[in-house]
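User: Is it possible to get a 3D structure for a protein together with its bound compound? The compound here is zinc ion. I've pasted both below.
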Amino acid sequence: MPTPLPDADLLLLLAVALPPRALDILGPVVDERFVETSYGRVGPLALRRAANGRGVWVQPYSGLPSRTDPRSMLLAARKLGVQRVLNWDTVIALNPLLSRGHAVIISDYIDFVRHQPHTFFESEGITGIHQSPSFCPQMGQALSLALPMAPGCVYVGVDGPRRESAPEARMFRQWGGDLLGLNLVPEIGLAGELELCYAGVATVTDVSADRFSAPPQGEMRYGLELVLEALPRFVEMLAAPATCGCAERLSAPRKRGLLANDWWAQE
Ligand SMILES: [Zn+2]
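Assistant: Yes, that's possible. Here is the predicted structure of the complex:
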C-alpha cells in the first residue's frame, strides 16, 4: 500500500480534454504512482505540487462504458490517503438557460445509471445501510467562491455511449434535471462508502437533443479556461481543515459496527 502524503488530500478526476501543460497551473508533476486494487490497476496518478506546497493528485477519467471499474478509481484514492475528490466533468445541458462552454457546479443528482457497480458491498450481503450520499458542502462553497458565475445544477447520471433521444431529454428535464453526464454517478455513492468528500464541477459541451445546437464558436475553449483558472483558488481554500461534517455523516454505518474499521485496506 502506498504511503499517504498528508499534504496531498485532494484528487482531481478529469473528464475534460485540456491543452498540453494546462495543468501546470497547479504546479509541476513531482510524483507518479500506480495503485493496485482488487478491481483493477489505476494510474499513473500524477502528483502536482504548487509553490505553497499543496499537493493535488490528478487523473484523467472517462465515464464511458469501456472505463475501468469505477470502484478501482475511488479505492485507489483512498489508498493514496486522499480525503477529497473533485470530478470535473463534461455534460449535456437540459436546462434552456445553459449552453456550450458554461461552467456549472453540481449541487445534487438523479441516478439513472443501470450498468455500473453502485456499491462495494454487493457480494457482502450487507443490508440496512441507508446512506444518502450528498456533495460535500465545504467543497461546494469553495467552488462557488472560485467560480462565482457558475450556477448550482441537478445532474442526471446516465449510461453511455449513445446520446439521449429528444423525448428522453424532455423526460429528464421534467424530472428536474439540468444536465446529463456519465462521470459522477455511481462515483458519488462509491466515494460515500469510502467516507470521502466528493464534489462535481462541469463544463457544458452541448445542448440536449431536443434543443437547437448552434455550430461551435470557441465557447468550449473559453469555458474550460474559466474552470482551469479557478482551480488554484479552489485548492488554496481547501487548505483549511474540513468543517463539512462529511466524515462523521459517512462513517455512521462503520461506527454502528456494520462494517470493519479498515475494510478498504482489507479488500
Ligand atoms: Zn466534505
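The chain has one domain: 71-257. The chain has a mean pLDDT of 89.
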